[in-house]
TrEMBL record:
<comment type="similarity">
    <text>Belongs to the protein-tyrosine phosphatase family. Non-receptor class CDC14 subfamily.</text>
</comment>
<dbReference type="InterPro" id="IPR050561">
    <property type="entry name" value="PTP"/>
</dbReference>
<protein>
    <recommendedName>
        <fullName>protein-tyrosine-phosphatase</fullName>
        <ecNumber>3.1.3.48</ecNumber>
    </recommendedName>
</protein>
<feature type="domain" description="Tyrosine-protein phosphatase">
    <location>
        <begin position="187"/>
        <end position="337"/>
    </location>
</feature>
<dbReference type="InterPro" id="IPR016130">
    <property type="entry name" value="Tyr_Pase_AS"/>
</dbReference>
<dbReference type="Pfam" id="PF22785">
    <property type="entry name" value="Tc-R-P"/>
</dbReference>
<dbReference type="InterPro" id="IPR003595">
    <property type="entry name" value="Tyr_Pase_cat"/>
</dbReference>
<dbReference type="InterPro" id="IPR044506">
    <property type="entry name" value="CDC14_C"/>
</dbReference>
<dbReference type="InterPro" id="IPR020422">
    <property type="entry name" value="TYR_PHOSPHATASE_DUAL_dom"/>
</dbReference>
<dbReference type="InterPro" id="IPR029260">
    <property type="entry name" value="DSPn"/>
</dbReference>
<feature type="domain" description="Tyrosine specific protein phosphatases">
    <location>
        <begin position="260"/>
        <end position="325"/>
    </location>
</feature>
<dbReference type="GO" id="GO:0004725">
    <property type="term" value="F:protein tyrosine phosphatase activity"/>
</dbReference>
<keyword id="KW-0904">Protein phosphatase</keyword>
<dbReference type="InterPro" id="IPR000387">
    <property type="entry name" value="Tyr_Pase_dom"/>
</dbReference>
<dbReference type="Pfam" id="PF14671">
    <property type="entry name" value="DSPn"/>
</dbReference>
<keyword id="KW-0378">Hydrolase</keyword>
<dbReference type="InterPro" id="IPR029021">
    <property type="entry name" value="Prot-tyrosine_phosphatase-like"/>
</dbReference>
């Protein structure tokens, strides 16, 4: 590193991002220990390490990339240090040689440079590559299918997202993301602003949240369509009764959708007037596959870019062979997207840019303004209609209705007097017959053969008097089979890939210790929790 900025001798393996301002370094364990015990931050250098600050919750062998919440917090931290130094100090982001931490740290640095320093993906990748090689990102499956995501795929995906305003960190509610990403609050993530919300599959039993848990959040965020991709585990009428459309496009867990399912999904989502919530069992594999197909068609993203963007928003999206399937249908989706834009907008490159990004704070404020303004305009009309309804109701009350009311009142009065006159009679009826009739003792219960232990082979549910009538052992066995209890089908139900992923995600929160949050963040969380109450 440049000797003019008084860099310590330990930092040798580094690259320069901004001239005399920002550096990225990969250090060995001994070098990190020396930095920690020596004077880390002197008058010329500020050292930063996030290896123990951010973490990735893995399903199997997957380890990254970090989600968009970690990226947002990392960008805030880097901007704070760079702006505070004002060119007088250089900022060094260092990481260890551990392959997973090294890849995640380099990915965060590259994404930060694209987001705030106006780097092109290829340029920043050429700089970071000098400290390579970097470990490839795996999917959330037990066995690899040969498809691995690269850091440069994440860089290109963020550039596309910024181009079409998928995300805007100047207007990003990180508290809402952190809350909704938790399993106890629905595990749902926005993948496309005001268009796609991916969430875990609801259920009417106790294995997951019921559909009613999501209704308030859906209505507050203009979700008017739901697409279910897994076998039905809840009654869809819970959503349709509140005005939310519901569609079933079911195909097996862990598999790829057929062409018919893909075409139906694209047709439904293109015609939907508002946001769409999509789920399968875990809301990762099948959900990410179809939403990724939409991104490829309508935003000219590659399959790798679509997968990378979805994993930034919802880690674990698109699993196993579904990654290869997206690559296979990539060219067909590009052609379909060109035809769609020519038909709708009259131009091949007419891709609309979103007004708001995902988790936009401004969208909620503007929505409240529109609602209050609409209510103000409709208030006189509603008042007139209510007055007209009251007048019509008063006119409809006729003499016959009053006569009917008086007739029922007279009948009730007569009934009360009769009951009071015969109070003793009613009291005797209430007591009833107190004599106990003679009953024959039951011999069936005494004649059952009772053994200790239900699982013992000698236990039998057949009465002894019935056994005496058997002439052969085969007939006795056949008769005992009639009395055996029916096995519970739920115990023998096949465990799917989505069940395993949900179980792993549930274990994250059961093993995690409670984290301290400042008061201001708790206030924000309480406001967000009102969406689920």
């Amino acid at each position: 590193m440049d000797k003019q900025i008084n860099t310590p001798r330990e930092a040798d393996n580094y690259v320069e991002i901004l001239h005399k301002q920002l550096y990225f370094a990969v250090l060995t364990g001994k070098e990190i220990i020396k930095l920690k015990y020596n004077n880390i931050n002197n008058n010329k250098i500020v050292f930063i390490c996030i290896d123990d600050e951010f973490y990735y919750e893995n399903y199997y062998n997957d380890f990254g990339p970090f989600n968009i919440s970690c990226l947002y917090k990392y960008c805030l931290k880097m901007r704070k240090y760079i702006n505070s130094t004002k060119g007088e100090k250089c900022v060094v982001h260092y990481t260890c040689e551990y392959p997973e931490k090294k890849a995640n740290a380099a990915c965060l640095m590259g994404l930060f440079c694209i987001m705030y320093l106006n780097f092109q993906p290829k340029d920043i990748w050429n700089i970071l590559q000098k400290l390579g090689p970097y470990k490839l990102f795996w999917d959330a499956s037990i066995q690899s299918c040969g498809f691995h995501l690269r850091i440069i795929d994440c860089l290109y995906s963020l550039q596309r997202a910024i181009t079409f305003n998928f995300v805007n960190f100047e207007d990003f509610d990180v508290s809402e993301y952190d809350l909704c990403d938790k399993l106890q609050y629905g595990h749902m993530n926005w993948l496309l602003p005001r268009k796609f919300l991916a969430f875990i599959g609801p259920a009417d039993n106790r294995t997951a949240h019921s559909p009613h848990f999501y209704i308030k959040y859906f209505l507050n965020n203009d979700v008017k369509t739901i697409i279910r991709l897994n076998v039905a585990s809840y009654n869809a009428s819970a959503f349709t009764q509140v005005g939310i459309e519901h569609f079933d496009l079911i195909f097996p867990d862990g598999s790829t959708p057929s062409k018919e399912v893909l075409i139906k999904f694209l047709a439904i989502t293109e015609a939907a007037p508002s946001a769409i919530a999509v789920h399968c069992k875990a809301g990762l594999g099948r959900t990410g596959s179809l939403i990724g197909a939409y991104l490829i068609k309508h935003y000219q993203m590659t399959a790798r870019e679509a997968i990378a963007w979805m994993r930034l928003c919802r880690p674990g999206s698109v699993i196993g062979q579904q990654q290869l399937w997206l690559q296979k249908v990539e060219s067909w989706l590009w052609k379909a997207g060109i035809e769609y834009r020519l038909k709708q907008f009259g131009a091949v490159d007419a891709i609309p840019k979103h007004v708001y990004g995902i988790y936009s704070k401004q969208w909620l404020k503007d929505r409240e303004k529109v609602i209050t303004e609409t209510r103000r305009k409709l208030r006189p009309t509603l008042a007139r209609t209510q007055l007209s309804k009251v007048s019509e109701k008063n006119i409809s009350l006729s003499v016959d209705s009053f006569a009917k009311i008086s007739r029922t009142q007279k009948q009730n009065r007569r009934k009360m007097t009769e009951d009071n006159a015969h109070s003793l009679k009613n009291f005797t009826k209430l007591l009833g017959d107190v004599r106990v009739p003679n009953k024959r003792p039951s011999t069936l219960g005494n004649s059952l053969i009772r053994k200790t232990g239900y699982n013992s082979p000698s236990y039998s549910l057949v009465p002894s008097f019935a056994k005496s009538s058997f002439t052969s052992r085969n007939e006795r066995v056949r008769f005992e089979q009639l009395f055996t209890p029916v096995p519970d089908k739920r115990k023998t139900q096949k465990i799917t890939q989505g069940d395993r992923l949900n179980k792993i995600k549930a274990s994250w929160y059961s093993n995690r210790t409670s984290e301290y949050r400042p008061y201001s963040e708790n206030v924000t969380y309480r406001k967000l929790l009102s969406n689920f109450s």
